[in-house]
Amino acid sequence: MGLSSQATDESHPRVGYAPWVLVVLVLVHHFGLWAWTSWRRDIPVLLLLDRWDSHHYSTLVLDGYSWPLWAFLPLYPGLVWLVRLALGGTLPPQVVGTALSTACLLGFVAWNTHLARQEPGHEGLSARTPWGWFVFLYGPASFALHSHHTEGLFLLLSFGALACAARGRLLPAAVLVALCIFTRNQGCFVAIAAALLAAMREPSWRERFVRFGLMGCGALLAFTGLLVFEWSRSGDPFMFLKAQREWNHVDSVWGAIRGLWFGNPWHRGFNGWLVLRNVFGAVWLVFAVVLWRRDRALGLYALLSLLVMLPQGDLGNAFRFGTVLFPVMFVAGDWLATRPVAMRWTVALLLVWLNHKVTHAYAIAKWPY
């Protein structure tokens, strides 16, 4: 069976309780690993949960925006601030954020499996096999889905937006798209995919243009709201883009291309972790194309999410960027389910190993994204 052909004649995905078993396994694995690392290396738990971008979100919750934290969009830290305030305002932000993200991940599993049972729809929105869920939940940086990061929230919102759009529910889809835009830069790609999903349900081109236009207007209104927020708080509506200059970026198309073989000025010597991210990016590209051949809207979302990393000069954030792309992960896992047993379990062991190493890297403050 080829990559582009997979049996999809079942009316209901055959996953049973696998998503719940796997998500519990992942949570026990990751939190157990962090507890062990905290004890063995004498790292305070609160410090372990506050690495890299998690620390930036904690700063936003406690102190508000300042340069260069404008690069982080407001919905996630705002929600953490609100939940923390409701709980008395004394809990560490990283604890509140971890609890919130874990709840979002569990909410995604519940919503996804419920819709898959009740209203089977687009391939890619739900996994058809337990292997689809395994590949998604054991993606390299899946720890970000249940820790103090935006990923858990964005996963829940983006799935809701795409699922509602695919089922013709324009108002909830538009609201969820707006929330995605306030959460991550990838929210704009969710808006495009949701508009296409809503439009392609209609038989006539006129109705398709109307639906696409309605969804597009809603997304444009949300983006305008984001610009107003940025302007009101910083005096510059594009401050969230300008602040990203504090991180590595290229200034030419050639810089973006040569980053694929680590040819930019900041690349020094051999870096096995960057090579692994390129391998992950290549697999991502393959299954994004497979997804494109089955569903143009979801495939475009996956491809845009990959291409947007190129201006950074390499795929140094590929693990984290890819962890929210459940359509790609589901399709990859469902394809893996059709492979020989030896191949399946070899890939499974490699995924668990890589996931374990990346999750541990976050705990000890090595680059995990």
Automatic annotation (TrEMBL):
KW Membrane (keyword) present: yes
TM helices/strands, residue ranges: 20-39, 67-87, 94-111, 131-146, 176-197, 209-229, 270-290, 297-313
UniProt keyword terms in alphabetical order: Membrane, Transmembrane, Transmembrane helix
Transmembrane helix found in the keyword field: yes
Lineage: Bacteria, Pseudomonadati, Myxococcota, Myxococcia, Myxococcales
Protein name: Glycosyltransferase RgtA/B/C/D-like domain-containing protein
Organism for this UniProt entry: Corallococcus exercitus
Domain of life: Bacteria
Signal peptide stretch: none
